[in-house]
Design brief:
mainly beta, 12-stranded antiparallel sheet, 6-stranded mixed sheet, about 625 residues
Length: about 625
């Protein structure tokens, strides 16, 4: 066991070993009022697992955020992506709490971070603080909720980590319970048959189990033009039945046995309902039984940040990328090292019963408070002859893989793949603007990749201007509309880089500077302190890398929101009064830059704004 995994295991055991009633005295919910969430720990998100609780703030920003326990500020991070404005508190009980997507910090954090912005002359900061530098007490306002970084709407993202191991722990284990007396419910169930263990991407057949599909019966007689009657749906026998608490069917309706020809797994979507909350969240625990023997168990207890991308193996990756659905695959791939599984038999796979017999299958979903919902069905062996499957040799997930072709070399480190799939590739004619000798299609874009893999790709036969080489990037097109641009280095006529998606690889040059649009009305020639100046800044290819706003020769702070391409600048005491020349320089990752200049008169704050409210 690696040292990091050992630290994680110790931290998780430490966290879960504490009695809940003791920890309940140490932590409080970080927002006032009834705690309502829009997301819970362990939910399936794009390329990661959700690592905390998302507290609802009524669709508003600016809601006070409270320190969950006594401690001190250990880290402050400001970013245009990810957690946006975030603060980390260390506590004497050995835990760290995280508060993310803040709109702004409260005093004295606000003054501390602003001083550092002007010290380092940049917005993006990630700074550690000494113990005792900024102490906090439980219930103290440390910031205000927002929608910064990668947030999809106003809320507070909250986490609890073990300080020593950095293991992330479900906050509900540490006393932050949610009011929930309602059982989860199933949205969909399907049986997915695959080519064998370790080949979950090689799907042979899928069978929809729930909800039952209705069939429309068509009339055999001639339709009358005047008739407006719609065909009545035919009665369809269900494939599944609801389960009572003891596991027996709660309804007497007969079901259709489901044929199973090869190994398969259950794929489901389930949601949980909390009290006084119209929004639904993910479930805490999933259990699958074949003939009342547990073959699969998933529990959202905790994991390490290095393991969050294993969520791609838990989810149905193509569905998540294409329609953002959260389909949970009840199977464990060989390369999936996520520590959130309980009892697992046969990788969680269902196997066909003996010829002439049937097996019962049960699926249970639980929320953290123990409320549960279950559905069952019966499976029988499919008597149809199996179709032989031709496959190339498997690739073990724990070994390095090298792929070579004319103009291409790939190196996949151990642990890059979740399944033991044979790796495929093909070359395509170079697309317009492609500087490589050809476009390469690597494996299948529907297959997720756990970590970056090395790419050596040869440029075309035509000579690339030396001044253009620094602007060349590896273009990686994945499933759907996913496009990533990766920088690299040159080795003669070969470009060396890394990619993190399967799909198409090519070389492109970014010579187009970023775009800048000032959102200030051109008729306005005066700005007062206390007002906000906004810009839209964007780059069509490699993305915005850096920006710098100066008033005269003085740097001033601007806050960038990457998801909205919005740069906002608070006109404050750092802006000198009088006629000023504002200069904004924006650079992309290829080094292209654009400058926007604005001549504006800066005046003091409107005195009326300083008057107390009546």
């Amino acid at each position: 066991m690696s040292r990091r995994l050992l630290r994680f295991a110790i931290g998780l055991i430490w966290g879960l070993a504490w009695p809940g009633w003791v920890l309940a005295q140490n932590f409080i919910h970080p927002v006032e009022g009834l705690p309502l969430t829009s997301g819970v720990f362990g939910e399936l998100r794009t390329n990661h697992l959700h690592s905390g609780l998302d507290y609802r703030t009524g669709g508003n920003t600016g809601v006070p955020v409270l320190a969950s326990a006594n401690g001190h500020v250990s880290r402050i991070k400001t970013s245009a992506t990810g957690y946006g404005l975030a603060v980390y508190l260390d506590h004497p009980n050995g835990y760290t709490t995280v508060y993310a997507h803040l709109e702004r910090y409260a005093s004295p954090l606000a003054e501390w971070i602003k001083t550092r912005h002007y010290q380092y002359l940049q917005f993006e900061l990630d700074l550690a603080l000494k113990p005792g530098e900024i102490p906090v007490r439980q219930g103290q306002i440390i910031g205000y909720s927002g929608n910064t970084g990668g947030s999809g709407g106003p809320h507070l993202h909250f986490e609890i980590r073990h300080t020593l191991s950095e293991a992330i722990i479900n906050p509900q284990h540490l006393g932050l319970r949610l009011l929930d007396q309602k059982a989860p419910y199933f949205q969909s169930l399907r049986l997915v048959e695959i080519a064998g263990p370790g080949l979950s991407q090689r799907v042979l057949r899928t069978t929809d189990l729930f909800p039952p599909k209705t069939k429309v019966t068509k009339s055999k007689g001639r339709k009358s033009r005047k008739s407006k009657r719609k065909p009545a749906p035919a009665v369809v026998r269900p494939r599944t039945y609801p389960l009572s608490d003891d596991g027996t069917p709660s309804e007497s309706a007969s079901v259709i046995p489901v044929p199973l020809k090869s190994t398969g797994y259950i794929e489901l979507m389930a949601r949980d309902r909390q009290d006084s909350n119209e929004l639904t969240t993910g479930v805490y625990r999933i259990v699958v039984l074949q003939n009342r023997d547990t073959i699969y168990e998933f529990k959202a207890d905790g994991f390490h940040f290095d393991q969050t991308r294993y969520g791609n193996s838990v989810m149905d990756y193509p569905s998540r990328i294409l329609d953002r659905s959260q389909r949970h695959r009840c199977q464990v791939s060989p390369g999936n090292q996520l520590p959130m599984y309980g009892r697992i038999r046969r990788n969680g796979l269902l196997y066909p019963p003996n010829e002439g017999s049937v097996d019962s299958v049960q699926i249970w979903c639980y929320d953290f408070n123990g409320n549960k919902a279950g559905r069952g069905f019966v499976v029988m062996a499919d008597s149809a002859a199996a179709v032989p499957i031709r496959m190339a040799p498997r690739i073990p997930t724990d070994r390095e893989t090298i792929l070579r072709d004319q103009g291409l070399v790939l190196r996949l480190p151990p642990g890059t793949l979740y399944d033991e799939e044979p790796l495929r590739h093909r070359s395509l004619p170079p697309a317009s603007g492609n500087l490589a000798s050809r476009t390469w299609e690597i494996h299948n874009a529907r297959t997720p990749v756990h970590q970056p893999y090395d790419v050596r790709i040869q440029a075309g036969t035509h000579r690339i201007n030396p001044s253009l080489r620094s602007k060349v990037f590896l273009e990686n097109k994945g499933l759907g509309n996913q496009i990533a641009y990766h920088s690299g280095t040159w080795d003669g006529n070969w470009f060396l880089s890394q990619a993190r998606m399967f799909g198409r690889l090519s070389l492109v040059a970014d010579t187009v500077p970023p775009a800048i649009r000032c959102l200030l009305n051109p008729k306005i020639k005066v700005l007062r302190r206390g007002q906000i100046l906004s810009y839209r800044i964007s780059d069509a290819i490699t993305g915005v890398h850096d920006y710098r706003l100066c008033v005269g020769d003085a740097w001033v702070l601007g806050q960038f929101d990457a998801k909205n391409s919005l740069l906002t600048v608070a006109v404050d005491e750092c802006f000198p009064l009088g006629n000023q020349n504002l200069e904004l320089i924006v650079k992309d990752k290829a080094g292209n830059s654009r400058i926007h200049r604005l001549l504006i008169d800066i005046e003091g704050m409107d005195p009326s704004s300083l008057l107390p409210e009546p």
